[in-house]
Design a protein that fits this description.
The chain is an alpha+beta fold. It folds into two domains: 23-129, Nucleoside Triphosphate Pyrophosphohydrolase; 163-306, Nucleoside Triphosphate Pyrophosphohydrolase (Alpha-Beta Complex), CATH 3.90.79.10. Helix content is 23%, strand content 28%. It starts with 28 loop residues before the first helix and ends with a helix. The structure holds zinc ion (ZN). Zinc ion binds next to loops. One of its GO terms (biological process) is NADP+ catabolic process.
Length: 309
């Protein structure tokens, strides 16, 4: 595998937050209280994020003083304390200057730091909404640790935020072609790397081997870790690999992929030029995996072909 190491400055979207999570403040109410005057809050309405234009817009946390025990403290961002709180439609309507937008749809236009804070807020709100009751005894939970623990007093169980690991893999063959797949329902011409959830009791490497076999009937003979990306849609962390596979003709199972095929750089370049080939946008780990493979042996970088970074 000749693909070079991944340059950290090219991390995919939702990474590289300048936010300091400062976990010790989750149990330090006094520290949070002292920082309240300049603190801000990210209201989240139906998992939509508050924006003004393409910029994250926050509100003074003081406005929510009576409800901060229900808010989740995210950390310190640009020296300011940041909370997030779920709000109702009626509340959201009180702030006409904010428009609440879908993070996934807006991510391509956002500043990386804003996108990272929104991804964190969205993931925490999603987790908290789904753990209002204890999974063991069914009684109501209550937030502690500034919203980072949901505690069941009835049976003494503490619930912690979770991310579901999911792997993405860019497979090359010995001719240095790239294996891409299409899921049913994707727009015409859209292709991406293969992906799958890590199952309980399974290593990520085993997931790579299993999914490439299940989805394309290709045997993986080697792999290397590439990079990762939080993916709060709703609760994943994506773990990216480069792999080498047998140069067999891919065979798809209809309940997994609609199609899978090997692509040369020339095919991809020609498809992009003629607009008959598309892939996920540049903030995604999928794009970065394809780009890293493409660029290590191409006259012109992939970003030049799609016209943006
Ligand atoms: Zn319980």
């Amino acid at each position: 595998m000749n693909i070079p190491d991944y340059p950290h400055e090219r991390t995919p979207g939702f990474n590289a937050a300048t936010l300091d999570r400062k976990a010790e403040w989750r149990t330090d109410e006094q520290a949070r209280e002292q920082a309240l005057d300049s603190a801000v809050l990210v209201p989240v309405c139906r998992y939509r994020m508050p924006m003004r234009g393409d910029v994250l817009e926050t509100l003074p946390a003081r406005q929510f003083a009576e409800r901060l025990d229900q808010a989740i403290w995210l950390g310190l961002w640009n020296q300011r304390s940041v909370y997030t709180l779920e709000v109702t439609d009626a509340e959201a309507a009180q702030w006409p200057e904010l428009h609440f937008s879908d993070l996934r749809g807006a991510a391509m236009r956002l500043q990386p730091d804003d996108a990272a804070v929104m991804a964190y807020a969205r993931a925490m709100i999603y987790w908290a909404k789904r753990h209002r009751y204890c999974g063991r005894c069914g009684k109501a939970t209550r937030p502690t640790h500034a919203g980072h623990v949901l505690r069941c007093d009835a049976c003494d169980l503490e619930h912690y935020p979770r991310s579901d690991p999911s792997m993405l893999v860019q497979v090359s063959d010995e001719q240095d072609r790239c294996l891409l797949g299409r899921q049913p329902g994707w727009p015409p011409g859209m292709w991406s790397v293969l992906a799958g959830f890590v199952e309980p009791g399974e290593s990520i490497e085993d997931t790579v081997i299993r999914e490439v076999w299940e989805e394309a009937r290709i045997r993986v003979t080697g792999m290397r870790y590439f990079a990762s990306q939080p993916w709060p849609f709703p609760a994943s962390v994506l773990i990216g690999y480069h792999a080498v596979g047998d140069a067999e003709t891919p065979q798809v199972e209809q309940d997994e992929l609609e199609a899978a095929d090997w692509f040369s750089r020339e095919q991809i370049a020609e498809g992009l030029r003629s607009k008959s080939f598309f892939m996920p946008p540049p903030f995604t780990l999928s794009f970065r995996l394809i780009e890293a493979w493409y660029d290590h042996n191409a006259a012109q970088p992939l970003s030049a072909l799609i016209g943006r970074r």
